[in-house]
Amino acid sequence: VSEGTVYEPFGSKEDLLLTIPAKHFERYMSALPHVFEIKDPLRKLRRFIRYYFSLFSTEREFLKVFLLQLQLSKRFLGTKEFDSFMRYFRTMERIIEDGKSDGCFREDVNPRVFRNMFIGTFNNLALRWFILGGDRHFDKMQKIDQVIELLCSAVTVNGGN
Questions:
Q1: What does the DSSP assignment read for 56-121?
Q2: What 3-state class would DSSP assign to 135?
Q3: Residue 127 per-residue DSSP state
Q4: Partners of 156 in the β-ladder
Q5: pTM confidence score
Q6: What is the Cα 108 distance to its own chain's centre?
Q7: 37 and 31 in contact (C-beta within 8 Å)?
Q8: pLDDT by residue (tens digit) across 92-145?
Q9: Residue 53, Cα to own-chain centre: how many angstroms?
Q10: What is the pLDDT of residue 42?
Q11: Rounded CA gap, 147 and 143, in Å?
């Protein structure tokens, strides 16, 4: 098969690249109900953050493509794959809203700002760890725990105390 034939159903290499995240985010979304059978919003938030780190750390090649090729692409923002990515994060936003309703999260927390803060934090760590090759495994787990605690204390009433 010639190289051009491979791209025929997609139109271009970029179109093919843009289809990659669809199966990943569908699989991530289908697993969420099983991951979040707990009711406590703070525990759910901790689990969501840890789950997201674990998903990408086990799929490093997808992580590289996603961070370096897709997430930085203006075309990605207008795709159904981007919609799947954002639907995944609406789960996080609902956790924040549930915590606000329960009174364990601060009323002034904007779920979209929190989501963006989390994505930025994750992207920074993932680029260093999985793409640039920094830090040891032990350090990663310790830092993930620190990130979880910092992010959770940012939204909880009285900083979680």
A1: HHH-HHHHHHIIIIITT-TTGGGSHHHHHHHHHHHHHHHHHHHHHHHTSB-TT--HHHHHHHHHHH
A2: coil
A3: I
A4: 105
A5: 0.79
A6: 23
A7: no
A8: 999 999 999 999 999 999 999 999 999 999 998 888 877 667 655 557 888 889
A9: 7
A10: 94
A11: 6
